[in-house]
Specification:
Blueprint: H1 10-18, H2 21-49, H3 51-70, H4 75-104, H5 106-113
Helix pairs in contact: 2-3, 2-4, 3-4, 4-5
Length: 117
């Protein structure tokens, strides 16, 4: 929900802060950049160091992103908020899905990992 929740606010921010449509596209793309950086690292890190090692910083990134969104008065704040959203979602999804597979136990691990195929 975090990547989509602020979407209706981008047009009012665009009018209030005063930036071009091309800048808005860059702001939206920052999420994908953060997500692409986080997903490969988060999965391996949660396997190696534990699920909470990834989940806690991911939740912290989400809270920081919300803080930047809530106080945004510049394009830089929106860029930072959107960039933080990527690792927040990437880390939560990678470690969270792995935790769900862990809860299922070893006999259900293979079935859970292939459920999306």
């Amino acid at each position: 929900m975090l990547p989509n929740a602020p979407t209706p606010l981008f047009v009012p921010w665009q009018h209030r802060i005063g930036f071009a449509t091309g800048t808005l596209t860059v702001v939206f793309a920052m999420y994908i950049g953060g997500l692409l950086l986080a997903l490969p690292v988060a999965g391996a890190l949660s396997d190696r160091c534990g699920r909470w090692t990834v989940l806690l910083p991911s939740v912290l990134c989400a809270l920081l992103a919300c803080l930047f969104y809530a106080t945004a008065t510049s394009v830089a704040a929106l860029l930072i908020a959107r960039l933080l959203t990527g690792p927040a979602v990437g880390g939560t999804v990678a470690a969270g899905m792995a935790a769900v597979v862990d809860v299922g136990g070893p006999e259900r691990r293979r079935r859970a990992q292939h459920a999306g195929c």
